[in-house]
Write a sequence for this structure.
């Protein structure tokens, strides 16, 4: 329970892990990547502000959406360090990520729709494969591997 006395109390890494459901090692990793910040006490132990809990929640939601950590880090740099992200902050970030997510959904939908044709060819006809070589454009480049992946 948050009381006026402990409102500004800093949290240990174990407390942050327990409250957020994120492993201590993940918190250390987030810190090395600059996603969260801690201070050191006199005993050189990490102490986190309470606001870190909301930042960690934001990181986890963004990861679940498939947002790369580097992008999450760039987004977090736009937020002030001295407070928890707000609903308004989340609105700005989520609108940007929503556009990217919509684009990925469109790409996956196209991939799914072309998959039926791929199953039909059974990867026996590289000229007709709708996923690897639509329209046999690679055949026009001559023999050999043209791309990896």
């Amino acid at each position: 329970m948050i009381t006026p006395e402990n409102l500004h109390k800093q949290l240990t890494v174990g407390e942050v892990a327990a409250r957020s459901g994120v492993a201590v090692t993940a918190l250390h990793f987030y810190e090395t990547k600059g996603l969260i910040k801690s201070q050191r006490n006199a005993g050189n132990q990490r102490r986190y502000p309470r606001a870190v809990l909301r930042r960690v929640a934001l990181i986890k939601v963004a990861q679940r959406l498939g947002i790369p950590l580097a992008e999450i880090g760039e987004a977090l740099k736009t937020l002030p360090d001295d407070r928890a992200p707000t609903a308004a902050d989340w609105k700005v970030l989520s609108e940007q990520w929503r556009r990217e997510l919509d684009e990925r959904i469109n790409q996956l939908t196209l991939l799914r729709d072309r998959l039926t044709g791929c199953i039909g060819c059974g990867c026996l006809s590289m000229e007709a494969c709708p996923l690897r070589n639509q329209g046999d454009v690679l055949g026009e480049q001559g023999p050999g591997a043209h791309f990896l992946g």
Notes: Residues 89-139 form one domain. The helical segments are 13-20, 24-32, 52-64, 69-77, 87-121.
